[in-house]
Amino acid sequence: MDYQVTIGLEIHVELTTNSKMFCSCKNDPDEKIPNHNICPVCLAHPGTLPVANRAAIKSLIKTAIALNAKIALDTFFERKNYFYPDLPKGYQISQYLLPLSKEGYLTVFPGQAKEKRIRITRIHLEEDTGRLIHPEGKDYSLVDFNRAGIPLMELVTEPDIHSPAEVRAFVQEFQLILRYLGVSAANMEKGEMRCEVNLSLSQRGDKELGTKVELKNLNSLRAAEKAVAYEIKRQEQLLREGNKVSQETRGWDEFKEITFSQRAKEEAHDYRYFPEPDLPPLSLDKNFISEIESSIPELPQEKRKRLKEEYQLDNKYLDILIFNRDLGEYFEKVASELRVWIKQKKGKLRVTDEEFGKAVKLFANYLLSDLQGLLKGKQFREKDFSISPENFAEFISMIYQGEISSRIAKTVLEEMFKTGGDPSQIIREKNLGLMSDEEELKAIVKKVIGNNPQAVADYSKGKENALKFLIGQTMAETKGKADPEIINRLLEELLN
């Protein structure tokens, strides 16, 4: 029997604002002192009144525009009533009937496959809850209200997702957009972005969906993809064995890589929504929306398309430059300087697209291989990086023009990384320039030929690797300071 998978996502995002959603308390997710950023308003003391955070509203509108969604010019906040120990009010100020935004979409490319458009039902604002702490071995829990009242944006998708790869692609692209917009750091491991999955299986072709299971608080891209993959297999096995899938909420065990039952969910909870009496209706001006729209930067998909067209980069390079925005911006600064350096070196008025493309490809290789090795797994941040775009461009142009060998280039780059020095100066000070005296080089080549009779014999039998071996031996003898092209020519002349 063939089953179809239907998935909808609910994603909560803590917004990066100076203060909380309805009071002036500091919004600091990294606060270490429990119950430090609290006040009578976010603790719901009698007689206190909330005031909506303008910056949080702007952040949601920015996100809605980036996700092609409609924005409600007239809306209001509501009370969502439920009891939980870390909810000081006994209700949550949220939105239900008329969210700030609805009917958007995001186009994703799961596994570099054909694009998939996923519809977005709604994006609304609410306030976050506090946090429960369960001391190990104790029979009580503690409550930290620092998080209570932090602006929380919730996005709900339509059930348009049908695989673990599509789940990951959507969450990852949404996370990128949030970071490009600057509305949230969206670190899932820190709870700044929390993903919940509603998943069901039904017989392929059935119009009616299967029993829905909710997967709660998935705190990484890997967890979201793995949990969905496991849950699909679990439900499929139940159905094939003639059993029913229970409607329930399940968690994800990161170590065992299985989902586990948390609680049964036989029917929807009655939250008794009604308009928040302490907040007036929210009316937005079209000029206010236009101002926000004009401040939206180039978004990931637009940048991906532009970089591909401008620099003819492969997807493996594009992905890294898009996901690390700082590295992507640094790349473009160096690429701009690189064109200038090649003009100067070649003494040309313009550089052809072919020449520039080769130089950029060379630069991308160094940026994403040698440089990553020097960073030793650390995230690239330009403000902490010692090599200026001008110096990196000069360094690449010297390799491209054949002024230094790849072996010398490694030494120069390491020194630049340590000191931030100019590549030309480093080469002069350390005497790393290429050897240009052909007679001197010929003597070294003769020595290498004399020391390697077996390679010479192999070359005479037509074995191509023998010549490469001899070139390598000559480069080692000159400590990488010989021009490989000259060495290749001299070897062929002497061997033939």
3D architecture notes:
This protein is an alpha+beta fold. Helix content is 42%, strand content 18%. The chain is built from 15 helices and 16 strands. The strands form 4 sheets. It has a 9-stranded mixed beta sheet. Strands 5-4-15 form a 3-stranded antiparallel beta sheet, with no helix packed on it. β12, α3 and β13 form a beta-alpha-beta unit. α6 crosses α7, α7 crosses α9 and α8 crosses α9. The chain is elongated, with a radius of gyration of 30 Å.
Task: Provide the β-strand percentage band.
Answer: 15-25%
Strands side by side in the biggest sheet: 2-6-7-10-1-11-12-13-14
Which stretches are low in confidence, meaning pLDDT under 50 for 5 or more residues running?
Answer: none
Query: How helical, in percent, are the residues?
Result: 40-55%
Number of domains: 3
Termini separation: 70 Å
Morphology: elongated
Major sheet description:
9 strands, mixed
Class inferred from helices and paired strands? alpha+beta
How large, in whole angstroms, is the Cα Rg? 30 Å
Number of helices: 15
Report the strand count.
Answer: 16
Report mean pLDDT, rounded to a whole number: 89
